[in-house]
Structure formats: C-alpha cells, structure tokens
Design a protein that fits this description.
Blueprint: H1 11-22, E1 26-28, E2 34-36, H2 43-58, E3 62-65, E4 71-75, E5 85-89, H3 103-118, E6 127-131, H4 145-150, H5 156-160, H6 171-177, E7 194-200, H7 205-209, E8 213-219, E9 221-230, E10 234-235, H8 247-265, E11 270-272, E12 276-279, E13 285-286, E14 289-298, H9 301-322, E15 325-334, E16 337-338, H10 341-353, E17 358-363, H11 369-372, E18 378-383, H12 399-418
Parallel strand pairs: 5-6, 5-7, 7-18, 8-17
Antiparallel strand pairs: 1-2, 3-4, 4-6, 8-16, 8-18, 9-14, 9-15, 10-13, 11-14, 12-14
The structure holds (2S)-amino(hydroxy)ethanoic acid and manganese (II) ion (2 copies).
One manganese (II) ion binds near residues 136 and 391.
C-alpha cells in the first residue's frame, strides 16, 4: 500500500506537457489529427530532448546522460544507499507517430515527481525518470536499442556503429551531432530497485473490453528481418515472362506468404511487411533489387521460431523458382518477456483500489520495459488507445484515461519507493 493512498496527479498539467512536446516535430492530418515525427537522433528528437531535459532541470532532478544518449533525471530519496525506483519510456517516434506513444511514460514520470515535490513528500528510494535512445527502431535497428545497451544487452561500440536505414548515418555520429553523446558509462552501474512504465496499449483490446487500466504481464517476442532480393533488371515490354528473374514479384509473394503464415497459425501470431523499396523503381523496368522488411511476433517463443522457419523455407522456395538471390539480415530478435509477478499484482491491485476497471494482458508492442526486466522487477501500466490506433497520427487517448494511468503510476511508485 502506498504511504499517501489518496494522492493524485494534476492531469491538466500532464496534458499540457504532452501538448507542448507534441508541438515538436508536429504532423497535422487532413481531419485534424495531430501527430509527431521525431525519428531517433533527428533535429526534432534533439529539440524534444532539450524540452524534457529543461523540465527535469526545473524540477531539480540530477541529470545524467549516458554514452548512448539515454537521459535519467533523479530525485533524491531519504535513503542515499537505496537504488532508485525508475519510471520512463521514450520520446523518439516513428515518422507517423502520435503524442502518447512513449511520451506518456516519460511525462507521466515527471508528473509523479512534480506531484511529490508539490506535497513535500520524500520517498525512501530515489525516483528516476528516464527516456531511452531509439526505442522505436524506425531509423536505427534494433528497436529498444538505448535500453538494451543500458542493461548490458548490446555493446556500446556496436550500438554506436549502427547505420540508419534511411540515410546511412552512423548512430554515434548522430548522437554527437545533436549534443547527446553523454559521459555516463553504459551499461548502468546501478540497477534500478524497480521499473514501471506507463504506456498507451496501442491496440484495440482495452477499448473493446471497456477497461481503463491494463496490468501488463509481459511483452511478446519480436523477429525483424531485412531482405535484399536481387534479380535481373530488364525491359518491361520486351522481356518474356519465362525469362524474367523478378525480385518485385518475389517481394509480393513474400508479403502475401507471411500474411498466410500468420493466418494459418492464428493465436497471437502477427506478420508485417512495413518497408519495401524497389530499385530502380521505374514504371517500365523489371526491378534489379528489392529491399524489404518482415516483422514477425508471437507471445510464444516456440511458435515464433516456427513462423520464422516457415518464412525461411518460403524465401528459399521463391528464390529457387524465380532464379533470384535473397540475402537475409536480422535487424532485431527478442524472445517474449514475462514481467515480475509481484509488480503485475501491484499494478492490478492499485488500479482496483483507485476504482478503475482493469485486466491483465501481454503487450503486442515492444517497450523499454522488456529490457529493464532483465535487471529489476518491472511492469507496465496500459491505458486505452482510441480505435486501437498507434504508429498513426490519429493516435489518441482521452484526458480522463491519461489521468487514470498517471494516478496508478503515482501510487505504484509510492508503494515501490517506500517498500
Ligand atoms: O516495434 C515496436 O513494437 C516498438 O514500437 N518499438
Ligand atoms: Mn512506445
Ligand atoms: Mn512505438
């Protein structure tokens, strides 16, 4: 139980911060949608970082920036020897992102800190608010790169040498360019006492069930592969079909093929071709090469491996039939993660105590929490996504649900930080 069970956040103050951050890298839709484009380590990401670091300073947090650009602001506790309770997420977005994905977890953490400061409450454990570099994995892969390095799951030098999928820029150079190549060593020298991440669900379940709070039990496994399919570029008009070695056709067959894998497997299996680039991409030229990505996910590791195996066999069969070569490069591969049972129980019990409907659920999306779970007791608090939309500028969560989620985060943090 928390030491201040009736304490609540200031939802308007939190919403104002979400709106202010939402103005950086703002993307406006034809129907009034207000989204964000802050790809990792872009100028917009830098500006968003500067804004949030400014708020951390205003709150008197001790700020550390580590060598992969993770930023952690810490409020002291009464026990200087105690490891911090950490809250956080990310503020980088996909190119068609929203105001809430990631941002809510970071700004919800600042709201928790400000609420405690406002009421002169000092917890036993320090409280840290973090945002991690390149959670999205849209520009640099893998996703959750910053938190993966933070927990020691990826070497710093390997991370700094990652090349951007869009312009080939080196991650370490971009970090220096935007002024966030910090001096704090990676991986972290001190594991948090616990980690809690407030996040939008990014899917339709809570809304469909009419539930306000998701007590997240874990994160499904993720398998990202980049394919480079090479064939024979030729004239679209003069080349008989029997003589073609068309990578464009193979790319389309792989797209429909992975859809068939997910449909046949059912359950939580999902498959997505999100990127597909033809070269030379001209109306009257049989393509020379196609570069594409395949995203496979499942809550069960054995089933995910089964999907990968069927996908691999499909690539080999198509390559042989069409006479093309297919080079496969793994961009990300993370097994499913189960969160700490006591932390999931705490989220669920707290939501109930605050009078919110709640349900246990796995996360379909990847999160920094799945990396922090490697080093400390971790869980997540989900709030509903309207129409289940995310990675879409129409992403939206109501102010009431935002406030409910932040109140649960506050009370979970109080319980964990005074325990
Ligand atoms: O891809 C994901 O699930 C996350 O948004 N990085
Ligand atoms: Mn996210
Ligand atoms: Mn995302």
């Amino acid at each position: 139980m928390s030491s201040h069970p009736d304490l609540r956040v200031d939802g308007e103050r939190l919403w104002a911060r979400l709106a202010a951050l939402g103005e950086i890298g703002a993307v406006h839709g034809a129907n009034g949608e207000r989204g964000n484009a802050r790809l990792a380590l872009s100028d917009a990401d830098r500006d968003g970082r500067d804004l949030v670091v400014g708020w951390m300073r205003d709150l008197g947090l001790a700020i550390e920036i580590d060598a992969v650009g993770n930023v952690v602001g810490t409020r002291p506790g009464s026990d200087p020897a105690a490891a911090p309770v950490m809250v956080g997420s990310h503020i980088d977005t996909v190119r068609t992102g929203g105001w809430f994905d990631g941002n809510l977890g970071v700004l919800g953490g600042l709201e928790v800190v400000e609420t405690l400061a406002q009421h002169d409450i000092v917890t036993r454990h320090p409280i840290s608010v973090a945002f991690f570099t390149n959670e999205e994995g849209a520009r640099f892969q893998p996703d959750m790169l910053g938190s993966l390095v933070y927990v020691g799951g990826m070497g710093l030098e390997d991370a700094l040498d990652v090349r951007a999928a869009d312009d080939g820029a080196r991650l370490g150079d971009e970090l220096a360019r935007i002024g966030y190549a910090g001096s704090t060593p990676c991986p972290t020298a001190v594991a948090p006492h616990a980690y809690v991440e407030l996040h939008i669900e990014q899917g339709p379940v809570l809304e469909d069930e009419g539930i306000t709070i998701g007590a997240v039990t874990g994160v499904q496994g993720i398998s990202w592969t980049e394919l480079t399919i090479s064939g024979q570029s030729a004239h679209a008009g003069t080349t008989p079909m029997r003589l073609r070695r068309d990578p464009g056709y193979v790319a389309a067959a792989i797209n429909t093929g992975v859809r068939a894998i997910a449909t046949q497997m059912g359950g939580t299996q999902v498959a997505t071709v999100g990127r597909c680039e033809f070269h030379p991409n001209l109306v009257n030229v049989v393509p020379a090469t196609v570069t594409m990505t395949v995203d496979l996910r499942n809550t069960d590791e054995m089933l995910l491996q089964q999907a990968e195996s069927v996908f691999g066999a499909l690539c080999e069969q198509l390559a042989a039939e069409e006479g093309v070569t297919i080079e496969r490069r793994t961009l990300a591969r993370f097994e499913p993660v189960e969160f700490d049972a006591s932390m999931v129980d705490l989220v669920e019990a707290t939501a109930r105590r605050l009078g919110h409907s709640t349900m246990r659920m796995p996360s379909g999306a990847g999160h920094d929490a799945q990396m922090l779970a490697r080093v400390c007791p971790t869980s997540m608090v989900f709030v509903p996504s309207v129409n289940g939309l995310s990675h879409n500028i129409a992403e939206y969560t109501s102010p009431a649900d935002i406030t409910a989620g932040a109140d649960v985060l506050l009370q979970v943090v109080l319980a964990a930080a005074n325990g």
